[in-house]
User: Fold this.
Amino acid sequence: MSATSINIINDLESRGLVSQMTSGDELKTFLSRSRTLYSGFDPTAESLHIGNLVPLLALRRFQLAGHKPIALVGGATGLIGDPSFKASERQLNASDVVEGWVERLKGQVSQFLEFDGGANSAIVVNNLDWVKGVSVLNFLRDVGKHFSVNAMIQKDSVKQRLEREGAGISFTEFSYMILQSYDFAELYNRYGCTLQIGGSDQWGNITGGIDLARRMYKAQVYGLTIPLVTKADGQKFGKTETGTIWLDAAKTSPYTFYQFWLNAADADVYTYLKYFTFLDVATIHDIEVADMAERGKPQAQSILAREVTQLVHGAEGLAAAERISRALFTGDTNTLSREDCEQLKLDGLPNTLLIGGRKNIVEALVETGLASSNKMAREFIANTAVAVNGACVDSPDFDLRIEASLFGKYAIIKRGKKMFHLVCFGA
RNA sequence: GGAGGGGUUCCCGAGUGGCUAAAGGGAUCAGACUGUAAAUCUGACGCGCGAGCUUCGGUGGUUCGAAUCCACCCCCCUCCA
Assistant:
């Protein structure tokens, strides 16, 4: 094993990325040589979202520091459902659906890691591979025997489910901890994996795995958790009016993704730079100092948006996002060329094909999803919140007309200050 | 299996026969102010242009009238066995 270049723990700590870890100083020493670590991602949807990005990027940080990362996709655990800090029991997903999600997630996690075949080349695994063959009796005898229910019910992660009036937990979800623990022990056995990282809600599951590895293999393994991303105003991170911000470009366009970061609050943006980018801490500090000195608009948001969009959607995705943003927010939409309009569509600006040469604005707002009902559409118009091709719509009787479109084909509807939709007239 | 408690509009949560589309809070959206911020203020927040219509786990009753009463069913929780 080769020595690592930098001390990853110190780096993570300086970024505020360490929530808890087992035997801190010992772990730092342990990591002075190249080690194998893992983090798990359960298939609870067809794509990962930005909340998954922090541990994912942490794996990358470890790899850059010379360690070998394993990204585990939970084909087995995804069938069970992690109860950690969840207020209520979750609906089980169909197994064939989860199977499909596993494949999607494998691809997603891979894009953040290096598979160069070198000593610390990354590995992607699926825990279903070792869980599916285990018989219930063997599992209960060989694994379950190492767990004390008394200890399990002490974990904070399930406490509210056990104590809160009106809540409850099924045996299925209660067993989740054991499955995840078994993963850690198994990865130790297979790959010499000695560290598990995850969000701070995973602490209970991680320590469970550490105990199991010791009992089954007399192994000393470690755990480290990363803070969950929060917003300074206490709201839930990663949601917008349109919903979750996904990593999959088909579910959240690079433009929407870019806009999400651009809209980060001042109170959060420097933290996010540390969490979500690879800019070093000193650079981020300099940005903050410069922003403080300027009275106007800070630079941090646009740097953040550029960095993260580039990371997730690549240079092309970033270019597309910036093109749209520039066109919609800095220029007059009427200055757009025909090619620009076509490009907006290709770049992922939400768009709708309109058959026929005329459409009432209220209907159009509903059909494009800019308003949830006719009633809401009328309200937006009454509040002068709707504009078509830059001109405010002042009546619900207004029609989108092909004669008044851009280049005989396009109309850009704006609702509120930030929502845009491209309408394309078609035959 | 027994006893008890509960399921209300996105969430929490009032509401025990008409004055209830249903208090209050949160979230969300729009407008003003701004930096495509924050804070603040204003408005909206089931559907319908409207008269009005459809909602309070489900079904069926009682009643002039039900989220509220009755019956059965489904689901959740607690305790006992």
Residues 300-330 of chain A form the longest helix (31 residues). Residues 382 and 394 of chain A are 7 Å apart (CA to CA). Chain A has a mean pLDDT of 91.
